[in-house]
Structures are given as C-alpha cells and as structure tokens.
Design a protein that fits this description.
Radius of gyration of chain A: 21 Å
Distance between the termini of chain A: 44 Å
Number of strands of chain A: 0
Oligomer: heterodimer
Largest sheet of chain B: 2 strands, antiparallel
Strand content of chain B: under 5%
Structural class of chain A: mainly alpha
Number of helices of chain A: 3
Strand content of chain A: under 5%
Amino acid sequence: MSGGSRSSREGSSRISDDQIVELVSKLRQLLPEIRQGRQLSNKVSASKVLQETCNYIRNLHQEVDDLSERLSQLLQSTDPDSPQASIIRSLIM
Amino acid sequence: MTNPGGLRSSFARIFLRSLSRINSGRVSSSRGRTLPKHRSISIAAYASMASAVGTRRAWSREVLRRIRRGGARRASRRTSEFPVGRKGRKEPGNGKKLKKEAGDGNEGSSIQGMRKKLRRLVPGGEGMEFHRLLAETAHYIKCLKTQVGVMRSIADYYTPV
C-alpha cells in the first residue's frame, strides 16, 4: 500500500491502519473546522481525528438541544402558522 | 455529492410543519406521558432530518426506526444527548454513561476506544463495518450541521429584536 511508516501502532486486530487513516483524513476534510493547517499533515493521529469527530458530534447534539430550548420559549409567544412558515422558508433558502 | 441546498429546504419544510403541530398542541402522543416542549422540538428536529434524508442512509433509517418504535422517551445517553434512544437505557444509562464520560480521556487515545465511541454516537453504528461507519459519520455530521443551521435561523427569526 502506501509507504506508511506507521505499521503497527496499536497492534490489535484491525482492518488496516493505513486504510483507516486514509478514510479518517477524508472524513476530516469534510469537517470544515479549526484545524485547517493540520489537514495537510499526514501525520495527524487517526485517533485524534476520531476523537475530534466524537466531540464534534456531541457538540452538535448539544446545540440542537439548546436551540430546541430556545425555540420552545420563543414559540410560546408567537404562532408559527403557514404564512410565517413561508416567510421563514424564503429566509432560509 | 448531495446538494445541501436541497437537504436544507426539505428539512426546513418538514421541521416547520412539525413546529406548527407542536405549537398548536396537536402532537400525537403514542407515549404515556407528555413531553416537555423542548423535548418534542428536539425529537422533531431529528425526525425531520431523518425524513428529509429518507432511507438512503443507515443512520437515518435507524432514527426513523427508533421513532416509529415510540422511542420518543427520553432515553438520554448523556454522552451523546441523543434524544431518540431506547427505553431500557434511561436510568441506568444515565449513571453508567456519566462514569464513562468521566473516564473519557482514560478510555484510551487508542483507535479502538474511539471506534466504540463513534459507534455509540452515530445511530445505527453498532452493527456496522468500520469503513461504512466512517462514511455514515461524515454524512451524519453534514446533516447535523444543516439541522443546526436551520434551527438557528428559525430561532433568530423569532427572536424579538
């Protein structure tokens, strides 16, 4: 495969470290996050990327919860019926 | 890949309909107790996103499955805050997962540990082969970002200036 110098970092039964790293870095590129500089580095640790991914997902879940709270309070005072919905739709798109 | 604009508008449409229903108190409750409003909204958000994605993805299929199963109970796994979960995990899940949360850093920076965590976070990730799990994760994250963006726009719209 690619001349990866990282043959057996963890040494457990796994598919292939190199394959995982490849997929993980592809995954990484899809996340437009803080660490743009690191994307160029092949040496970025796969487990670190996975950890960042997990944290990111958790953060997103948390944001959904917070936004739900916010929406539940906001919607109490207003009424999201269809005319407003179409306004929103035009705002969103 | 997919057109995020299309996903965004599909999700917005479905979610807004759900919000109308929730606000007018017409939430279908197949569950025994009423949910707090923000819970309903949160679940509606995930459900709307899963509907918008359809059955193309394993994670969306899993979400839809859980919801149809009546999984609107707050089986909250505190690690993931994912509202649509399975029933039995509620109380013991809380305590157990909290401990695991504390041991987060110690679960090892190993890939194995991360794989397990990812499997728990991404719906339907348990029975999946790792390559597939990564692809599902990428799509899941993309959809979550869209979801958050739309919810934020709606909230900003309704926030009195």
